[in-house]
Write a structure and sequence with these properties.
It contains 12 helices and 16 strands. With about 375 residues, the chain is α/β, with parallel strands linked by helices. It folds into 2 domains: about 220 residues, Type I PLP-dependent aspartate aminotransferase-like (Major domain) (Aspartate Aminotransferase, domain 2, 3-Layer(aba) Sandwich), CATH 3.40.640.10; about 130 residues, Aspartate Aminotransferase, domain 1. The strands form 5 sheets. It has a 7-stranded mixed sheet, with helices on both faces. A 3-stranded antiparallel sheet has the order 13-14-16. Helix 1 runs antiparallel to helix 8 and helix 8 packs across helix 11.
Amino acid sequence: MAEGRPLYVTRPTLPPLQEVIPILEDLWESRILSNGGRYHQEFEAALGTYLGVEHVSLVANATLGLMLALKQCALKGQVITTPFSFVGTSHTLALSGLEPVFADIDPVTLNLDPAAVTAALTPQTSAIMPVHIFGRACDTEAFEALANAHNLRLIYDAAHAFGVRDSGGSVLRHGDMSVLSFHATKVFNTFEGGAVICRDATTKEGIDELRNFGIIDEVTVSRVGMNAKMNEFSAGLGLLQLKYIDEATERRGQADARYRDLLAQVPEVRCLPLASGQTGNKYSFPILVQPDAGFTRDALYERLRANGIYARRYFYPLISDMPMYRHLPSAQPENLPVARDIAQRILCLPLSPDLDAVEQQRIVKVIAETKTGLS
């Protein structure tokens, strides 16, 4: 029988309700609900300061943010990306009239492998779209060198990478643009939302135009754009969340460390190594079921669910196995051996700021007893 409360892999982190109500009252009085109101402007500025980046454009969600970035770069042809991600990554390419080209991942970081990207280049390649999987930064130096050598645009899906820093500062500074997600399941959320981090002021100006239909003023529309603006309530909530994000990040880090200590005694599974030279959020806690564990990842998944522990198989199936992409030459299984192996063995355990030691001990106990329970 399941014990205690159900435990989910993600649970939204929310500010105290008494601090949200004044925002709602203010919005009700002002009647300014969208189109760059006070909260939008304040949040955009505060976010740039917090993240240590200069050019921030708030958007309604990360999917629209990626589509704006692709549109701003005026891309055509093929974009190389990872098959090991949320399907929204590739959908933004397909919706933009671009062909996703899948390259394999690194077996340690689980990020897009620069060597595999090099092998996947064709005359039709116009850009690379890596993903900072689970908030672990990609090999940004290698991708920058690749992009420069082949005259490619470089757009990062940074949905998981809020607050992540390397030795030079925010990882969001890399590439032509980086796109954050503020979806409810993310470390930092505004219910729904996102942001495009731009390299320069000219790019930000372009994104700002595109997110509002290409409108310049009451009588001027510069180009084809869309409605991708963040609303005022989400912006106000974002301002509140910034007050609590450091505490939430610290507590997630403590939970991450507890998992590592507890799972060190469970040889059937392996934790991903800590990312060297990086600091920031612990977006999730992935484990890999070892080939000789005596049970499969799916058997562990079902056993955890039976005990009220709702882990997730992130990311399974691979994007390249989905019906709208599996016909692509780059999606063929023999091209993606590492991603295919990882997708069959990975499981993300519950991780949130309020996950306590007792709950984690129960989770790890279920994992440790899985082999015995199935025999």
